[in-house]
Design a protein that fits this description.
This protein is mainly α and about 650 residues long. It is about 65% helix and about 0% strand.
Length: about 650
């Protein structure tokens, strides 16, 4: 960015201080909080409708939620009119950024890895248990009744539709389980707010992380942004708008040619069709995709990151082929997920080790209240933040034990959950990658895979499986948005305390909205008739996985544990090489991240972004950075705005329209 991050200049600028003072006066105001809370029901309904009746995968599988960017852009356009015709009531940049953060937090509970998977899992056994899968015999007696719905008549009306959540026969069965889940999410997602306070100073002021994900929203919030006024921006935006217009018209008029961009849209971009026979067919899904907004996000990344993402994606493909060539028939060998898991743990371990003196100072401050790291400028004192985290995390553990988890299993489960939460925040703050999914790396899957029923027992595994929904991918959690909110508030000179408080208040409200609209649309349309087929599959995913664990009846999986250890040391080794050899071209984060499902959608856009940026920087010099930044903004905004307009048109007209993602 052209602007200098907060805290980087040693000499205060009077004009900057004046601007920050004015922004603070119009920072996190009541009017913007009220507006965000009023928009939240509409946004949540849209999220519930997407994967529900509309059959489109929701925005939360990518790091920058495209529904939030759409709402932010519309809000910014309205504010532009206010600035021109009613400047006294126009919103400040700090208010616009608060709207962005609060809308992102309100989106999280409705996401794929929270409400949609949780909602399906909590009713899956009652709906799909049969004599064929033997679920009732395997774990039926261990199923926690307080957080599941098991009335078959209630579920029949939900799956068939033409009913109403306001019917007492329906809502009575949901009140108890929904309240328990609401309480769990309240504890689960309030605790990391304390995390955000404890980490902010280290990550923002000392390590000076750039928070790449929020740079586009930051620019959108400013009254004037040169990057949006260049020829490069308009050309990039115009090309993408034209492509989406043509592809949208193709849905209505097949004679209009289709411009292939998406995965599985055409065999033309399917490279995997050339890899036939053993061992080459072990390569699996292997397609080239051309998502414009992903290319734009890649252009905003350092070249070492974009290079690492596509390089390690191909590395994992080569590893799969090698394992098949060697004739190894062990399930899931060579344990790529476990290697990736070790890499993720190394991301956290390396950052904690580097910050050990800082955390020692924080601990001193918590214990003494006067010495150690200064917390006078934080949203909460470090003692308050620590107490908030401990109390809420304890509440989550107690809910775990209430569904018959052993105390040590519940503690281990939530320790890993919050460790993975911190990793997601770190990835977004430092790297700003287009996806940070920890798919099937959460505590449910990892503890089940590594320990098995011989160590954990049937009851613990059953209770863990019920929590599969919010640990499946960890793509949509409020913590990174809360941390980004503190970063943006500090940068604009607004109140970090108000920002954090507003996000904490949004969490329970948004969770309640997510349950309500999911149930309302389900009873109205019938989730068994939804176009995507997600709910029937998702309702069985956790329980089929549990049945496989119980049928295998295994204990310690030494091969998987060894793979995790290898992954940990590979990441650490790559990081040490990177710190000692400045010109080393690979970032070790790519090793951990490239096993994710959505990297199949993103590896080729990352390759194109890396190639474009490398060539232009080599032959056009540093000036090309500004041009590429404008191009990136044009690709992202145009793809999201025009693509979302097609989706909204389909929603209002109840017709099938073009979906720009995925």
């Amino acid at each position: 960015m052209d602007e200098q991050p907060a805290g980087q200049s040693s000499r205060p600028d009077p004009l900057a201080l004046s601007a920050r003072s004015a922004s603070s006066a119009r920072g996190i105001t009541w009017r913007i909080v009220i507006i965000a809370f009023l928009i939240a029901p509409l946004n949540t309904y849209f999220m519930a409708y997407l994967l529900g009746p509309r059959g489109i995968e929701d925005p939360t599988v990518v790091a920058l939620f495209w529904n939030v960017v759409f709402l932010l852009t519309v809000f910014r356009l309205v504010n532009g009119l206010l600035q021109r015709y009613a400047p006294r009531i126009a919103f400040s940049p700090a208010e616009i950024l608060a709207f962005f953060i609060l809308t992102a937090v309100s989106t999280a509970p409705s996401g794929l890895d929270t409400m949609k998977t949780t909602f399906a899992t909590m009713q899956g056994v009652a709906r799909f248990a049969s004599e064929v899968n033997h679920w009732e015999q395997l774990f039926g007696r261990e199923l926690p009744l307080s957080m599941t719905v098991n009335d078959e008549r209630v579920l029949e009306r939900l799956w068939e539709g033409d009913s109403s959540i306001f019917d007492p026969r329906n809502y009575r069965a949901w009140i108890g389980p929904v309240f328990m889940w609401w309480l769990l999410y309240l504890f689960l997602w309030t605790a990391p707010a304390g995390f955000a306070v404890l980490l902010r100073k280290r990550w923002v002021e000392q390590e000076r992380m750039s928070f790449p994900i929020v740079q586009l929203p930051y620019e959108l919030a400013q009254p004037r942004t040169p990057a949006f006024r260049t020829t490069a921006f308009y050309v990039a935006a115009g090309v993408v708008a034209a492509i989406n217009l043509i592809n949208g018209l193709h849905e209505f008029y097949p004679g209009v040619p289709l411009i292939t961009l998406k995965i599985w849209q055409s065999q033309t971009l399917n490279i995997g069709r050339f890899f036939v026979g053993r061992p080459w067919n072990a390569i699996g899904t292997f397609e080239m995709c051309l998502y414009p907004f992903v290319i734009g996000l890649g252009l905003l990344l350092p070249t070492e990151l974009s290079l690492s993402l596509w390089f390690f994606y191909l590395f994992w493909k080569a590893e799969a082929i090698l394992a098949a060539w060697l004739g190894v028939t062990l399930p899931e060998f060579p344990y790529m997920k476990e290697q990736s898991f070790g890499g993720y743990l190394a991301i956290l371990g390396f950052s904690l080790w580097a910050a050990r003196r800082y955390f020692a100072g924080v601990w001193t401050r918590v214990v003494t209240g006067v010495r150690g790291e200064d917390d006078s400028n934080e949203a909460l004192s470090y003692r308050q933040a620590s107490l908030l985290f401990v109390l809420c995390a304890t509440g989550a553990v107690l809910i775990g034990t209430s569904i018959k988890m052993s105390p040590w299993v519940a503690i281990a489960f939530f320790v890993q959950y919050y460790a993975m939460t911190a990793i997601v925040g770190r990835i977004r703050a430092e790297m700003g990658l287009p996806t940070h999914e920890l798919e099937r790396l959460g505590p449910t899957v990892m503890q089940g895979n590594l320990l098995g029923p011989r160590i954990l027992g049937v009851q613990n595994l059953t209770s863990l499986s019920l929590f599969f929904g919010f640990t499946r991918g960890l793509r949509n959690i409020p913590f990174p948005h809360q941390l980004e909110g503190l970063y943006l508030a500090e940068r604009e000179g607004a109140s970090m305390k108000r920002m954090l408080g507003a996000t904490m208040a949004m969490v329970p409200f948004a969770v309640a909205l997510a349950f309500f609209f999911t149930l309302m649309l389900g009873y109205q349309h019938g989730i068994g008739y939804y176009k995507s087929g997600w709910y029937p599959w998702s309702a069985q995913e956790a329980w089929n996985q549990l049945a496989n664990w119980l049928n295998a009846n295994q204990g310690f999986q030494w091969g998987r544990i060894l793979a995790s250890i290898i992954g940990f040391f590979v990441y650490f080794g790559l990081m040490l090489v990177r710190t000692r050899w400045v010109s080393w071209p690979l970032h070790p984060a790519g090793f951990a991240l490239s096993t994710t499902y959505y990297m199949a959608h993103m590896w080729f856009p990352m390759f194109l972004a890396w190639l474009t940026k490398s060539v232009t920087m080599r032959y056009a010099g540093a000036r090309s950075q500004r041009v590429l930044r404008s191009v990136a903004f044009g690709l992202i905004l145009s793809d999201i705005m025009t693509g979302t307009l097609w989706i909204l048109y389909g929603l209002f007209t109840n017709t099938r329209t073009y979906s720009f993602w995925p």
